[in-house]
Write a structure and sequence with these properties.
It is built from 21 helices and three strands. By secondary structure, the chain is mainly α. Helix 1 crosses helix 3. The longest helix is centred in the N-terminal third of the chain and has 31 residues. Bound molecules: magnesium ion.
């Protein structure tokens, strides 16, 4: 076989496996959006079987032989940049998967799929003991996974690496320590501020049908393509992509709160536009996949916060909001509205948190997970540890496990090592946004006129279309001229909130 034929065969194999992955993703989307409760047990088995088949295909001798031939081409420097990326990323994943047995992969998939509904029940009843046996099992399996995969310094590295490739626990610990110091002291200044903001002016009675219209209008205006996507409802909002032409997002609605569902929709639309911006010609290879969860989250945060909680965005949308919901908004002044949507106040639920305290939620989960995986603490200790840390960082007492340790879906899905990527997303987005402001003339003026296209195209050209061609850090350097630097996020927070709170 010539080099070209060999590589073509390699891509065909990858594409076949990607189709299987997409089928699993559709089953998962259906489970979260439409499936009746009783379907859970069999769905768990179906998904676990398909994941097992996929794993077997991936680590099969045939595929390994093919991969080794490509490796030879790579070692003798016969691959171009795109091919190098495809090989590098598949080899990375292959080396990881090869260390895990099919039985282990199936067991983990099945436990996690079943645990989803158990967690939902435990959360509803605020009873940690319902979830505990499953969580113990998941922690045990994730510790095993870290051992199988291997790590240099910290077992948590082995898990983190799935979500934020090439990033280490140590690097994150350093960034988070600095951030924690800044956030805690800045929060104190906000508490002492004489500016009192009343977020209750945002409360009202907002019929769901009208909210759906508003969410669709905003998502479409900022660039989510409804011909290549859907917006639905689920308990835990998320984005999933089957390919760039079919990207699904969800949100959730509450009658008395329009802002939460709208912010969620903008957030998920940001994720979705990343997926819609990927080149179809790269489907099935790492060039058609996002870089990391941190970079993915940067695309949601940049829209949700930097755009969607900013003055220019609302200069354009506030009159439309007033028209849609004259009560209460026709009576509210723009500046009061802007302050209300940005008011800072420690609260229990991460997904409802403001831009400042949000990161403390993440830092806390990172610290807990790290110790859970290295064995310093056990699953049964979690409520106690959670509540104590929460009191220390936020200064408020957690009233129940559903508002505390049970609030997030992640652990039930085995997603340990995932949380830090949320905060990394904030740092990446701050750095990207700063560069976009330099690159695009009058960027924020454009937002206030309802013009979002140029910004969206900038994100697409600089980030989306590259797929995994660059690592997260290489991309940040390429786009912004320097390595990841949390100073941009800290500057952004200081500037924005010093103005709001007159600090
Ligand atoms: Mg997100």
């Amino acid at each position: 076989m010539s080099k070209e034929e060999l590589f073509e065969k390699f891509k065909e194999e990858l594409e076949e496996m990607t189709h299987l992955k997409m089928a699993i993703a559709i089953l998962d989307w259906d489970q979260q959006v439409f499936m009746p409760k009783k379907g859970a047990e069999m769905r768990a088995k179906t998904i676990a079987n398909l994941i097992g088949i996929l794993h077997e295909k991936f680590v099969a001798k045939d595929f390994e032989n093919l991969l080794l031939k490509i490796k030879k081409l790579s070692d003798s420097k016969k691959l171009n940049d795109n091919e190098k990326c495809i090989f590098r990323e598949v080899w990375r994943e292959f080396s990881r998967e090869k260390k895990m047995s099919v039985e282990f992969v199936r067991e983990l998939a099945e436990v996690c799929s079943t645990a989803h509904n158990i967690w939902a029940e435990a959360k509803k009843k605020s009873d940690f003991s319902i979830f505990l046996p499953y969580l113990k099992k998941i922690v045990e399996l994730k510790r095993k996974e870290a051992k199988f995969v291997g790590f240099k310094k910290n077992p948590y590295d082995a898990l983190l690496d799935t979500y934020e490739p090439y990033m280490t626990t140590e690097e994150i610990s350093v960034i988070f320590e600095d951030l924690k110091k800044f956030l805690v002291s800045f929060l104190k200044k906000i508490k002492k501020s004489k500016v009192k903001i009343n977020p209750d002016i945002l409360k009202g009675n907002f019929p769901i049908k009208k909210q759906i219209d508003l969410n669709r209008l905003v998502a479409e205006k900022i660039g989510f393509n409804f011909d290549a996507g859907r917006l639905d409802v689920s308990a835990h909002p998320f984005t999933t992509s089957f390919n760039a032409q079919d990207v699904r997002i969800t949100t959730k609605y509450a009658m008395d709160d329009f802002l939460n569902s709208l912010s969620t929709t903008i957030h998920e639309a940001g994720h979705a536009m990343y997926e819609q911006g990927i080149l179809m010609e790269n489907f099935g290879t790492p060039l058609g996949e996002s870089i990391s969860l941190g970079i993915h989250e940067s695309q949601s945060k940049i829209w949700e916060n930097f755009v969607g909680k900013g003055k220019p965005f609302w200069k354009y949308f506030f009159p439309k909001l007033q028209k849609k919901f004259p009560h209460p908004f026709s009576q509210i002044k723009f500046d009061d509205f802007y302050e209300a949507i940005n008011h800072v106040s420690p609260s229990f639920i991460r997904t409802d948190a403001d831009e400042i305290t949000y990161n403390l939620h993440i830092i806390m989960r990172f610290e807990i997970e790290k110790e859970l995986i290295d064995g310093s603490i056990e699953a049964e200790d979690l409520p106690k540890i959670w509540n104590a840390k929460f009191q220390e960082y936020f200064g408020i007492k957690v009233p129940s496990d559903s508002l505390g340790v049970l609030q997030d879906v992640h652990w039930s899905g085995g997603l340990i090592g995932y949380f830090p990527t949320y905060a990394l997303g904030n740092f990446y987005s701050a750095q990207f946004y700063q560069t976009a402001k330099k690159d695009i003339k009058d960027l924020e003026d454009k937002f206030s006129k309802g013009q979002f296209g140029q910004f969206r195209e900038w994100l697409k050209a600089n980030i989306h279309i590259h797929g995994k061609l660059y690592s997260a850090n290489e991309l940040v350097k390429k786009v912004t001229g320097e390595n990841l630097n949390s100073k941009y996020f800290i500057d952004y927070i200081e500037n924005k909130y010093s103005e709001i709170y007159n600090i």
